[in-house]
Write a structure and sequence with these properties.
The structure is a homodimer of 323-residue chains.
Chain A (H helix, E strand, L loop, with lengths): L12 H10 L9 E2 L2 H7 L2 E6 L9 H15 L5 E4 L3 H12 L4 E6 L4 H9 L3 E5 L3 H15 L2 E2 L6 H17 L6 E5 L4 H13 L4 E7 L4 H8 L23 H8 L2 E5 L1 H15 L5 H12 L1 H4 L3 E6 L13
Parallel strand pairs in A: 2-10, 3-4, 3-6, 4-5, 7-8, 7-10, 8-9
Antiparallel strand pairs in A: 1-2
Helix pairs in contact in A: 1-7, 3-4, 3-7, 4-5, 7-8, 8-10, 11-12
Chain lengths: 323, 323
């Protein structure tokens, strides 16, 4: 079956470049920052792509904008929906509003008030459900049925992956030369998949690595065993990285990733604190995982140029892990 | 008596431009950031000069670098000294090291360990003293006598003021047009004095305003009564802004400032939290005072272009005011 929009194909180089152009007015060009102190500490030349400064506070806005834009080309007047209590919910609500679309967001009734408020501020229409995956999916199905809204998955969707690919694409434009490595946080695999595609089409030798909390290392296990291992009751402070890989992201990652590395909870908190203290910027725990994993594997990165994607900056300032 | 370096004269336009050129390799060019959410919240077009990203975490490094550079021109081989437990201590230690000078820092024996460590990391030689102003001054005098080091005052020194002037000078180069207002935090008056001089020489109509905690409003009182009122036992979270004006900064400010405005402790914490949450950057309480004061005086700034200097980002992440 052929679906009526290009989101059903793996994005290639021209598709990535095209969505970057299309979204230029919508998506923020985020800065690439460096930090002498962290360079010294790691013996590495680090380049940080700051998606914590992205609209809605995370790279998720790139994927949501890409999906909403593609949808608007083929189904003008469509609405979108998703279930999420995280960054994707906010990103989709905002992207939809900027395209004059309606966004229906299914959220668990115990979602933090700050996240509920953020989705509402961006004009999202919230339907609450019980806090189980089953209830989420049932409620989403009901919302889809009643509204005709199109489901935009947080990562298992080529339209979304295509948007996430623009993050590293933009970073390459900003750097003078391609880095030896680029490391991204790894949860469902949307950002890593997009980064892999960009590296494939626009670099000659950059090695792409995913970084996971060791307490949610399902992708690492999958990579080691070369078979799909789902995430099982992960407990980690990096709450954006708990999900399993998807049917689209799993094969992309298995085939193209250079490696998957992990970080302990202690390292994640330490790396996050270093970034706040030394770089004076706010990143969320998930965003600190690549730096934490690099610090646990210093030898392989010594004297290399390493790009790191700071995936987001949405934290509850009243609940910081070092208090 | 004429002292042997230009730091004894009020810096003029060419002097400011010259030190900006001289320090280019040393001082970081910090970005000017904007934030749509804060613009909407205030009805103002805000431009934030991010000295929290400056070396040693605050604008103080500009003044210290300027002073150390000027000294190195006239007394090669000299050492510098100061008494401070704040940003000036770290800034002077680092600036001296980068000029291959020795820096002697007098600190109270109850100074926070994190600040002691920072000064030591930058190569500063610390002499501890009892935590009274009297002990500080006596100890500094002893250090000066024993080492021959030149005292660099944190703000009451034209060499320092000249360096602080480069902050707004650099900001003007980065903006397309001059702002209607520029607001700086106001403690001893070094940053405000430098900003006033830059505005005088390089803008046609920018109004310069100092912002003080209402709990440390000695400069506001001085401005209202047109006579020098010293700071008396101020209690404020903005610990960088507790000091009195100096003999050099007082007349500069009285003569040139457009106004002095104040902010309550609650507003300072609120403004600081907004910046962390919305802009995803770390600023210290003192740096939040201009935005807090603007929010308490919204009418006069509506629809205006307002520059704000985020003076620094050195905070103890374990002691945040909203916990």
């Amino acid at each position: 079956m052929e679906l009526p929009f290009p989101g059903t194909k793996i994005p290639d180089g021209p598709a990535i470049r095209h969505i970057q152009e299309q979204n230029r007015a919508m998506v923020k060009e985020t800065p690439v920052l460096t930090c002498q102190t962290l360079n010294k500490l790691t013996g590495t030349e680090l380049f940080f792509k700051c998606e914590n400064f992205q609209k809605a506070g995370a790279f998720k806005f790139r994927g949501a904008s890409s999906a909403v834009w593609e949808l608007s080309q083929h189904q003008p007047g469509a609405a979108v929906c998703t279930h999420s209590s995280g960054n994707h919910a906010q990103a989709l609500a905002l992207a939809a509003r900027l395209h004059n679309m309606k966004a229906h967001i299914v959220m668990p009734e115990n979602a933090p008030q700050v996240k509920v408020d953020a989705v509402r501020d961006y004009g999202g229409v919230i339907t609450f459900c019980e806090p189980t995956l089953q209830a989420r999916e049932a409620t989403l199905e009901k919302v889809q049925h009643e509204t005709g809204a199109v489901f935009i998955h947080p990562y298992n969707d080529y339209r979304v992956i295509r948007g996430q690919a623009t993050c590293f694409y933009e970073m390459l434009q900003q750097l003078n030369e391609e880095p030896d490595y680029i490391i991204t946080p790894l949860g469902g695999g949307g950002l890593l998949s997009g980064t892999l595609l960009t590296a494939k089409y626009f670099t000659s030798a950059t090695k792409v690595i995913g970084a996971e909390p060791i307490m949610a290392n399902d992708a690492w296990q999958s990579f080691q065993q070369n078979k799909f291992i789902p995430s099982q009751n992960p407990v980690t402070i990096a709450d954006g990285l708990k999900t399993s890989l998807g049917t689209l992201t799993y094969p992309l990652i298995m085939e193209n990733a250079h490696d998957i590395i992990t970080a302990s909870e202690v390292s994640i908190v330490q790396a996050m604190k270093w970034v706040w203290e030394r770089m004076k910027i706010v990143i969320e725990p998930s965003a600190a995982v690549p730096l934490a994993a690099l610090m646990e594997n210093p030898d392989r990165f010594v004297s290399k140029k390493v790009g790191i994607i700071f995936s987001g900056g949405n934290v509850d300032l009243k609940k910081l892990p070092w208090i």
